[in-house]
Predict the 3D structure of the following.
Amino acid sequence: MALSLSLAGRRAIVSAATSGIGRVIAETLSEAGARVEVCGMDQAKVAELERHHATIGASSCDLADAAATERFFAGAVERLGGLDILINNAGIAGPIEPAETIALEAWNRTLAINLTSHFLLARLAAPFMRNAGGGAIVNISSTSGLEGNARRSPYNASKWGVIGLTKSLAKELGPSRIRVNVICPGFVEGDRMERVIAETAAQKAVKPGEVRARLLAASSMGIPVRPDDIAAMLLFLVSDLGTRMSGHVFVVDADAM
């Protein structure tokens, strides 16, 4: 059987993909031959991405807003002329404090972006993938979706929820040849992790280097994960090589768990 990582002719949507892990994912899908539509909050980053990538279309969207999320999807799938791949990458760190002091608004926004946007986009995508004869959905969770962390209850709850959502969608959509998987990254290099490290260090009254060292010490390899590592795993899952992979949790964390 001839299988390939090529995505030539495929149509993909990636949420929250104008920077960081999402952008690397979008670029990887594009390099593999897919036409890609993405969204992001920062208008300047949206414009910059479109300037540099002719095969990637970008739109502004606040994924905490259900109506805005639906408008983004409708525009993206119209421009693509259908849909074969959906990558739910959206996620924010949320508040880092004890559960008893977290504002309900902060809790709700974290779950709206990290979990509800995945649900909304997946249910919008399903009919188009069914019409195409199948498709692939990959949700991005976290190793925080496999364990508990103090002072991170909204983030952890949302990331656990993404795994449960993935498992359920895989059962529902499997008969339509739509496979659904979830990737759980560990300590990923990038601006968002640097912000989390800085905030954690400030709250614990230690230096950021100490927080970073503790995170790295959890890995048997002693290294962080790169966005490219996540994109490589994802490319396998959405390509022909991942045809029979569905309902699974893939941890990419340099053996930190």
The longest strand covers residues 178-185. The chain has a mean pLDDT of 95.
